[in-house]
Amino acid sequence: MNSVYAAAPELGTEACRSLYRKLAAGVTVVTTCGLDGEPQGLTASSVTTLSLRPPMMLVCLATTSGTLTAIRTRRAFAIHLLRAEQTALAAAFAGSSGSGKFAGVEFQWALGIPVLPGTLGWATCALADERRYGDHSVVVGSVISVSDGRGEPLIWHDRRFRELAARGRRDAFAEN
């Protein structure tokens, strides 16, 4: 073993949690359909694109998640990118489990999956793979359809919802 790692102190959960909170991420809602035919979903920030050819996305979900259980069964899900003004929607889906999260929320069905109109965009996915790592599973979806909206993304950073900086500021890459 490398001596640098051998000398490192034991890593605690709180130290990792503190570091992870520094990661800024777009806020998403992941939806699917439960065994009872009712929509299910949750707020997630560990979501990213995986491949363009073929189009694929991935999301990390807690292994105890009811939404993950439903995705395993239905083998399909949708990922919704939230707009900056959709903090209430993000908070609603971050709450307790169950289809009650959809109470008062407008949604439509696409390919048997509940989708949320008015978001920054969404993708419906067929489950391609799932692998467990620690207390989460990496869920890979083959993108079936997309809807691309307008607006600015809602960001999660340091346990708070945030927006991008004001538009008047200079883009760091604009001059390159």
TrEMBL record:
Keywords: Oxidoreductase. SMART domains: Flavin_Reduct. The keyword Oxidoreductase applies. GO terms for biological process: pyrimidine nucleobase catabolic process. Pfam families: Flavin_Reduct. Residues 20-163 form the Flavin reductase like domain. The keyword Cell inner membrane does not apply. GO terms for molecular function: FMN binding; riboflavin reductase (NADPH) activity. Gene3D superfamilies: Electron Transport, Fmn-binding Protein, Chain A (2.30.110.10). This is Flavin reductase (DIM6/NTAB) family NADH-FMN oxidoreductase RutF. It comes from Streptomyces eurocidicus.
